[in-house]
Design goal:
The complex is a heterodimer. Chain A is α/β, with parallel strands linked by helices. Chain A contains 14 helices and 13 strands. Chain A starts with 12 loop residues before the first helix and ends in a 10-residue tail after the last helix. Classes of the chains: A alpha/beta, B mainly alpha.
Chain lengths: 470, 61
């Protein structure tokens, strides 16, 4: 087996594909190297759920055959990846990060994985996650079958959740990219904490067939990778209509950076307080420098405010009501008590108490929110805020100790998820020797715009190229 | 259903910022979860929604 240079594990998708096509290494060698890395380093960050070394080798051999015959299937051909353990792979264990489902096996494979397989991407395994994607309202990072997600930049810090393993595995060079999911912050938060680029697609753009349902009207599957360009290339493959997903928007996505509007034509709304008083003191210098770098791209930053709605209450009500139905059997059987986090257990049990009229009120408010955001996006092309107010929190710190300063774009994560809007988080500097990130949110189906903003930022900075000491 | 700017403005006039704040945490997880649901109910009750506004899910025959 060829010994790959250490930087290979942090290469972007186009770089890896170029070297595969140039026969610098074979797909089988690449898959074997990443599989070995997943099994060796994954446990170090509690990132590994289940490795697929033999399956990966078989897939990679098939890719090598295709390459020999000149059957090129695009930039993701031969690229290893792994998925959050809420996506099913036929015949393999899918735990949803939770003890009650530790032996669960489905006989079908998630659509997003099938699509990646069809272009020759090589699945090396499944990655850890917060149990049941944290819908019950977990209090501690340890709320997972796999233990707390540990941050590759500092293992005493949390990797974020609920796509914990997906973000930490990319950050540690364990996989070139991963799939995660977001119901309310589960791609953006771990991407921000781990210093990688995470894209939450518009609701319905990526099929959720084969994914654990937490909230039918909020769940999204999205990529986590090293760059915005990588995310665009992955999204192009995994997006598209799927009759097996009732929430499918029936749309495809084509990554077309060449047709992006010039950045100097873009108006980006922001709230200055997000980067000052609402940010951790240690992160403010990084955020100030990031805003300055963003201005140099030519975008116009304009002060604006979010439409005023009780986003947190609406999201919590919808999530609770839907998960109460989804996990009715778990709750009624008492198996819910086998979960790791007492707050999560209580939240799931209590979720059955959400009045129907509250759920419907929240769902009606979503219509008003959508309309309010449509109007806001007639004035600005995108919104920008921090990915998180500061760097990753200590792994033993309860999550309800995280400060929540009102004002600015407080609630933008819940708002963006309630309105089904796409968002991207990308690294923009460091605080306390840990990465911090920006978050850009756009109108529905504006992925090319928000990717273009992040891509230009990454063309002018090197934060996304920084690597933790492994 | 068409939402006019006027209806939207009326709906948005309801107080909501205070609803973003987290209710006081109880040491008992079940009590805390129930308090959260109650706080959500109260926050949603303060919101006015035009009668013609349908929920954001659709049923197709």
């Amino acid at each position: 087996m060829a010994v790959l240079a250490p930087e290979t594990f942090f290469a972007t998708i186009p770089e890896l594909n170029r070297r595969l096509v140039a026969k610098e290494f074979s797909a089988e060698e690449l898959a074997a190297a990443f599989s070995q890395r997943l099994e060796q380093l994954g446990p170090r960050y509690n990132a590994l759920a289940l490795p697929f070394p033999q399956q990966a080798r078989r897939q990679a051999k098939s890719v090598d055959d295709d390459l020999k015959r000149g059957r090129l299937r695009g930039p993701l051909q031969g690229i290893p990846y792994a998925v959050k353990d809420l996506l099913s792979v036929s015949g393999q264990i899918t735990t949803w990060g939770a003890k009650p489902y530790a032996a669960q096996i489905f006989e079908y494979t998630a659509t997003a994985i099938q699509k990646l397989e069809s272009v020759g991407s090589v699945l090396t395994g499944k990655l850890s996650m917060v149990e049941l994607a944290g819908g019950g309202g977990y209090r501690l990072p340890s709320a997972s079958l796999f233990g707390p997600g540990l941050n590759p930049w500092d293992r005493s810090r949390w990797s974020g959740g609920s796509s914990s393993g997906s973000a930490s595995a990319v950050a540690a060079g364990i996989v070139p990219f991963a799939l995660g999911s977001e119901t309310s912050g589960s791609i953006l938060t771990p991407s921000s904490y781990c210093g990688v680029t995470g894209l939450r697609p518009t609701y319905g753009l990526v099929s959720r067939y084969g994914a654990m349902a937490l909230s039918w009207t909020l769940d999204k599957i999205g990529p986590i990778a090293h760059t915005a360009e990588d995310c665009g290339l992955i999204l192009q493959v995994i997006s598209g209509s799927d009759s097996k997903d009732p929430g499918s928007a029936g749309k495809s996505f084509y990554y077309t950076p060449q047709y992006a509007r010039p950045l100097k034509e873009l108006r980006i709304g922001y709230a200055p307080i997000d980067f000052t008083d609402r940010a951790d003191a240690s992160a403010r210098p990084a955020f100030a420098a990031a805003l300055a770098a963003l201005k140099e791209t030519g975008v116009q930053l304009v002060e604006t405010s979010l439409p005023v709605f009780p986003y947190a209450s609406a999201l919590s009500t919808i999530l609770y009501a839907e998960q109460a139905s989804i996990f009715e059997e778990l709750i009624e059987s008492g198996k819910v008590n086998d979960l790791a986090d007492p707050a999560q257990i209580a939240g799931l049990k209590a979720s059955s108490d959400v009045p129907a009229k509250d759920y419907l009120k929240a769902m009606r408010l979503r219509r008003l929110m959508q309309e309010a955001f449509r109007q806001l996006f007639s004035e600005v092309d995108a919104l920008i805020s921090t990915g998180r107010p500061g760097p990753a929190t200590p792994v033993d710190q309860p999550l309800d100790m995280t400060k929540n300063v009102p004002g600015g774009f407080n609630g933008i994560v819940q708002a963006g998820n309630l309105a089904g809007l796409p968002a991207i988080a990308f690294p923009c500097g460091f605080a306390e020797n840990l990465p911090v990130a920006l978050q850009v949110v756009g109108p529905a189906f504006s992925e090319n715009t928000i990717l273009a903003i992040a891509r230009e930022f990454q063309a002018r900075t090197d934060w996304h190229k920084r690597r933790p000491a492994i | 259903m068409k939402i006019t700017r006027r209806r939207l403005a009326v709906a948005l006039a309801a107080p909501a910022l205070s609803a973003q704040t987290t209710p006081p945490q109880s040491a008992d997880p079940m009590e805390a979860a129930k308090a959260r649901i109650k706080a959500n109910t109260e926050a949603l009750a303060k919101q006015s929604v035009p009668m013609s506004t349908e929920p954001a899910f659709s049923f197709r025959a």
